[in-house]
């Protein structure tokens, strides 16, 4: 499932590049490997340097607008941490979208084209 989200995100990034839309990814990879203690230390270091549980996969920066994008498979659901992140972002007046397939990605790009 994660592989499908990764592939969708890569395709979306290609579309963003093609349309000259400025964006960046938030690397929220899960810490794997090592001992339990090593993973705990790694998580603490990541959190100390700004890693936030539930942060969106991508941030799109437009003229006078920031949009946070979460990539999910067709059947993918947001975690509670992702829902909390979405709520905080919206409370601060920003947009948040969940994109499930390439059609969602194309529709999103068409909807923001007039903003830049």
Q: Please provide the count of β strands.
A: 4
Percentage of β-strand residues: 15-25%
Sequence of secondary-structure elements? HEHEEHEH
Strand pairing plus helix content: what structural class? alpha+beta
Structurally, the number of domains stands at 1
**Helix percent band:** 40-55%
Amino-to-carboxy terminus distance: 33 Å
Mean pLDDT: 89
| CATH uppermost class | Alpha Beta
By oligomeric state, this entry counts as single chain
CATH topology: Trna Endonuclease, Chain: A, domain 1
Return residue spans where pLDDT drops below 50 for at least 5 consecutive residues: none
Assign an overall shape. Answer: globular
The side-by-side strand order for the widest beta sheet comes to 1-2-3-4
The largest β sheet comes out as: 4 strands, mixed
What CATH architecture would you give?
A: 3-Layer(aba) Sandwich
How many helical stretches?
A: 4
- Radius of gyration of CA atoms, rounded to a whole number: 15 Å
Describe this structure in words.
The structure is a single chain. By secondary structure, the chain is an alpha+beta fold. It has a single domain, classed as Trna Endonuclease, Chain: A, domain 1, CATH 3.40.1350.10. Helices cover 46% and strands 18% of the residues. The protein contains four helices and four strands, in the order αβαββαβα. It has a four-stranded mixed beta sheet with strand order 1-2-3-4. Helix 3 links the parallel strand 3 and strand 4 (95-99). The protein is globular and about 50 Å long. The N and C termini lie far apart (33 Å). The mean pLDDT is 89.
């Amino acid at each position: 499932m994660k592989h499908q989200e990764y592939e969708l995100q890569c395709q979306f990034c290609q579309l963003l590049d093609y349309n000259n839309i400025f964006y960046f990814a938030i690397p929220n990879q899960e810490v794997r490997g090592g001992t339990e203690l090593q993973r705990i230390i790694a998580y603490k270091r990541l959190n100390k340097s700004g890693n936030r549980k539930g942060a969106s996969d991508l941030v799109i920066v437009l003229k006078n607008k920031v949009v946070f994008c979460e990539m999910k498979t067709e059947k993918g659901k947001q975690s509670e941490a992702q829902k909390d992140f979405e709520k905080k972002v919206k409370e601060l007046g920003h947009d948040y979208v969940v994109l499930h397939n390439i059609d969602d990605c194309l529709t999103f790009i068409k909807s923001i084209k007039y903003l830049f």
